[in-house]
Specification:
The protein is an alpha+beta fold and 534 residues long. Strand 4 and strand 5 form a beta hairpin. The longest helix has 16 residues.
Length: 534
Amino acid sequence: RICLRRHASSCSAMLEVSFTPTFNSLAVAARWRETASAQAAQRRVTAGQCGDLLEAAAICPMSGFLARNANCYTYHCPFACDGPGPSLPDLSMRLVRVGGPSTAGPQRRRAGSDSNDSSDDEGSSVDVGGYDATKEEVVLSGPEPRRGAFHLLEAGCPFAAIVAVRSSTKVAAANVDAGVHVQVGDIVRLDDKHLARVTAAPKRKSRSSLLGLLQPSEDEVVPVETASEHGVRHGEVVLSSRGRQLLPEFTGSGSLLVFNCGTLRNVFGWRDRVLRAVLMPWHRLGPWMTAIGGNYAYAACLDERFVVELLEHGLFVLPGGQDIFSCPFPMRPFIFKMQEHDANTWRRCKMLKRYRSEFELSCNEDLPGHLRRCGAYHEEKGGTWISEGFIDVMVRIHRDPANRVKVYAFELWDKATGELAAASFGLAIGAFFHDFSMCCLVKDRRSTGAILSKAIGALLTDCGVMDWYWGSKMEYMKEYEAHGAREVPRAEYYERLRRGIRQELRSDPEAAVRTGRALIEPRGGGVATATVAL
């Protein structure tokens, strides 16, 4: 963890930035801190408690120094204020992958200060002289605390965090095109794992000729500062006339700090593809997740609050009995835009009209029991992820009034035998409905699965569901395109999901089934029959 501090001698405040690397992310948090004076004492800090740090006992007049305390690193350097009070410019942090071409790196996104913010653009990276420099940035300064992160990084890779004034980073490329010479704040490559910041104007280096005479040279000697967890070192590097040691993307950016760090090594033994896309409870989920490669993210925790957050951001959990499990997040999700399509297409289904009188419908008559039965059904078909842990967390989420997730089991009963013919499971968050499993226990000419699905489609439309999500498109789903189902880009799905969960349903599907508003009559005669309380 790193704390960057910019002190203004005429002000009684400073900006504190902590920077925490994990195995696949680099989290950033910034806030203003009040200070008693420019010479205030520093408290003793335990590992990871950067919030307890106060101002350092001394401020170097020309450059920064690094104070290490346990696992916490504090960088101090001078800064001048204009007038009374803190008036730091807008600072931002960008991340550079050191020591490899951009084609070797993953896509990266940053999470903004609000995980519900859907205004983030698509993430991408650019090749900067053999480095990856993300186009995304994390804003550090501002009147309120800021949080952000760089995600989807490789484990055990060297990175450099570059802090600069936001407005100055926009003119860097223009300075390169205009042939601007080396300036203070430019970024220099030292070796395959380290970058350095130019601290003073360069000077020409003279060469001795064969006659012992000094002749001018095109080489420039540049004073630089290298900051890492091992401290701050000052030295000089020689730049060639072609400037191959400079990072063009940051030329003229006036960077204030370059901190060399890296993601943690892969000590789990997981494949790199999996480790890069693992989501942990401390991650701030947001639009950056749309850059996850492939159709799955991964998780290793079934904590109720964490699972709710995953659901609220469009993912699902398939735990089975694994320590690490898949979280489906298709590149092209298959969804019904329920309020944008003719609702009567459900009612025109021939199988539903022909056989619906032979069935009864209920909802949540035995949610945990029918989830177990669904799991046993799929186990017989070759395997299931519906474990006892999954059932337990879904029932707890359903019962917990503190969240907006409600789980539904729609049960289709054969009137003639009284047996459960089919069951479909889903969950609602606001006006968004996520279908997650189904079992067809009676297979005959009546196609119980199709009858139940189409009855549910009509019901959800009437209840005001905006989007009905079915996961990745499979072959049998083609017939449902007649009812408006389409594959959409992941970014569109995510935006519709985040908008839908903030809306309310017109009516509760469970109550609608119980009061006879579905296309199939309610089990036991409707209102007179009470459903089993969970």
